[in-house]
Amino acid sequence: MYQGGNQLTREQLYEKVWSVPTTQLAAELGISDVALAKRCKKLNVPKPSSGYWAKVAAGQKPEKVPLPPTANEVFVQAAEKPLPKTLSLPETTNQLHPKAAELLRMLKTAKPSYDKRVWAGDTFSPIAKVGKDSVDLTAKCFHVIVTNVESVGIPFTTPQGGRQAGCFRKSNDRLYLEIEDELVVATENVRRRSWQVNEDSRVPSGRLTFSLSDSRYSSGKIKQWKDDGKVSLECLLPEIVAEVRGYFVAALRRRAQEAVEREKQAIEWEKRRREYEKGEAIRREKERQQKHAEALEATMHAHREDLMKAAEWWRLHQNAVEFIAACEQRWRSAQSGELTAEQQAWLAWARETAKAMSPFETGYPAPAKDGVFDPASVPFGGPYPAKRNFPRPPTMPKIPPPVVKQNDYASHQPEPPPQYPFWLKYQGR
């Protein structure tokens, strides 16, 4: 929905809907009432009731329905709400979030890996690599994180198939959480026989490290927190929750800005397309005018050439008639006034041939058709006056056509707009 070449924002549409009646606004925007109503419904813009404008006309000031916040605005308000400085861990694992309970079950049933930690994260869970003694603590921490993140509308999703880790996801943005038990070198020396495998001497420390990354297999982390004993886990968890919330708020704003940029590019492209079509229409009109002028000039040139051809054919006719008369006189003088049958036949043929040379035999000239004409009386694009198209006399050279001055508009044609980019049209869908 555009006005003045720019698309109306939700706030602008709300102000206009409540400033003038719907029928008047639809006519102003060049759309139907139904299209306007659909646009308001799509953007969740309230419209005045049927009696609202009657009350306004009666001098009353009926109350306007306030513009409700969008789903994104509600999400941002909830996600940016300050968190407490500490988030307490549950005392037991009996009432955990379903995703945390699933993580707990997987860790308890998993067998220790080569690094003496149990792993989870291949299916339906966050990425976790912790020691057996840290399983309950890991599940409790994840319970606090996922509960406070999902409460603002950022669900923790699990894959529908395959062996992939779950992640926080909103729209097309993902954020992976990894909980890892730091490995430290064992204090006691383990004596091994020469034939035994030289296993890693490190063991889980019981101190958890939390990492966030935007890609499952990304080597770089967005942010990381370590339980180094200086700050309690209850103080670290609010920072993790705030970081997850802030990541998706920033992603939402980034996508909104990208949508605005795409809209600007689309408007600019549409503007260039209209300018190009306008230039093309002007160019085509000039071409038609040029062709019309050339057709009129060609008709005038043909009339002039017909006159020259007729005059030349008349001269040839006159010469032929005089030559035929001289031939007859010569034969009669030489033959005492008598002509042979062959001579009479030739004279009859010659006179018919000479007669056919006369332009009068074709009805030329007809002043109304063969003379000057008013170009203004000829409709634009024709039909144009008829031409005689006399055969060219053998003694008459061909007259070159008139030189028509070309306009220079062809060298200043507007460049066509680039093709609408496919990536821009479907980006963000």
Can you lay out the helices and strands and say which pair or pack?
Layout: E1 2-3, E2 6-7, H1 10-17, H2 22-29, H3 33-42, H4 52-57, H5 71-79, H6 98-109, E3 118-120, E4 127-130, H7 135-150, E5 156-157, E6 167-170, E7 173-185, E8 202-213, E9 223-226, H8 233-334, H9 341-357, H10 367-370, H11 422-426
Parallel strand pairs: 4-7
Antiparallel strand pairs: 1-2, 3-4, 5-6, 6-7, 7-8, 8-9
Write structural notes for this entry:
- This protein is 46% helix and 11% strand.
- The chain has 429 residues and is α+β, with helices and mostly antiparallel strands.
- The chain has three domains: 2-68, no CATH class; 87-187 and 197-231, no CATH class; 297-402.
- Strands 3, 4, 5, 6, 7, 8 and 9 form a seven-stranded mixed β-sheet that branches. Strands 1-2 form a two-stranded antiparallel sheet.
- Strand 6 and strand 7 (173-185) form a beta hairpin.
- Helix 5 packs antiparallel against helix 8 (233-334), helix 6 runs antiparallel to helix 7 and helix 8 (233-334) packs antiparallel against helix 9 (341-357).
- The longest helix is centred in the middle third of the chain and has 102 residues, at 233-334.
- It is elongated, with a radius of gyration of 48 Å.
- The mean pLDDT is 85.
